[in-house]
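Open question from group meeting: does this chain pack into something compact, or does most of it stay loose? Before anyone orders reagents, we agreed to write out a predicted structure and look at it together. Recording both the input and the output here so the notebook holds the full record.
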Amino acid sequence: MKTILWDYNGTILDDAQLTLDVENTLLKERGMKGNYSMDAYRHLFCFPVLDYYRKLGYTFETESFEEVAEEFHRLYSAGFSKCGCVDGVREKLAESKKKGYRNVIISASRQDKLEEQIESLGLRSYFADLIGIDNLLAGSKVEQAKAWMAETGTDPDTCHMIGDTLHDLETSMAIGVHDCTLVAQGHQAYDVLKDRWPNTVHTMREVVL
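Structure tokens returned:
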């Protein structure tokens, strides 16, 4: 059976604008340079997220990364109802299910939040498994993905990873999945992705399952 491994934020969930709005709010509150455009954000964003925050000018001398992350998630949760699915993703999920593929989410979202949000989007029936992390600090998904692959005995050669960041590519390679598509509708710019990975597309509708 073919397995489609989906990233969540920016790949399924269209939350780039909400994320940018929250980031600009946090920066404004702290009197830091802000008011970033979406294009600027997509060129700045990276993993680990701590490195991205340092790019924005955070030094974490007067407050911790954990404190900033907590405020980010409070504002993000308050605005979550504005988010929908990335354009084209519902159609791709329906196509995948029709073809008999197994759909699995591998996400840097906290497990309980991931499950709650997928339910609220009405997408739970498409997925065999939802794999999140155990905290809100946007850590690496690699260990969770490796554990799931080992537990389920999934052959990486039967998998196709779909994501929107270079971290998704890194996750894919780390678990031995070489069939990976990066979609530039989320949190990183097309040229940033294309520079590292040839199988990069502009929109979800271009993805070949």
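Observations to bring back to the group:
The beta strands are 3-6, 13-14, 84-85, 102-110, 129-133, 159-163, 180-183, 200-201.
The CA atoms of residues 22 and 74 lie 10 Å apart.
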